[in-house]
Amino acid sequence: QKGVNEVILLISIHHIASDGWSMRVLLQDLSNIYSDILTFGRSKSEALPMQYSDYAKWQYQFMKSPEYSNQLTYWKEEMKGAPPALELPIDKEKTDVIENVGKRLIFEIDQEVTSKLKTICKENNCTLYMLLMSAFSTLMHRYSNQEDIVLGTLIANRNQAELEKMIGFFVNTLPIRLNVEADMPFTALLEQVKDKTLQMYDHQDVPFDAL
Predict the structure, then answer these.
(1) How far is Cα 25 from Cα 184, in angstroms, rounded to an integer?
(2) Which of 5, 43, 63, 100 pairs as cysteine with 33 (C-beta 3.0–4.6 A)?
(3) 14 SS3 class
(4) What are the two backbone dihedrals, phi and then psi, of residue 8, each rounded to the nearest 5 degrees?
């Protein structure tokens, strides 16, 4: 406590119990509850219709269902014969020792470029994610000189309305496999990314560790 009217709140949550979406939910909940207490003396937030334990129970049952088997079969077919890794040109020799040493480069894409990207999305009936994934896969193709490319991508995995306001770890990692050829028009690659992305959404319930 710094003063009579000033308090610092420190929140520490392990990733096993939260994801990026959850943090937005948490901050919004705190704001609403704080406002309610100031105005009404108590929180007026209603209890959620589901709890995370309900989701865990659903997932456990889902992994025994025919739908889960169908989704897993899709991924087995999709990843059949896939390359084990991207052979990127690196400046250090690969070893079996994991050093966990890396760097982060943070930059911003200005409003003008963002506006142009959104215009391209509208013209090609795609999302910004699809457009950027197409550009990124092109870059990986040029660095690796590989045509068969598998990239990992995160998905919120909240495909039920009841999950949108729930705090918990839902995010899933899924592979997207693309055929990127040197003479391929970018629009053709974008169409491929659109198709693969929609298929990925239809089979997003398989946990990455199962894949």
Answers:
(1) 42
(2) 43
(3) coil
(4) -105, 125
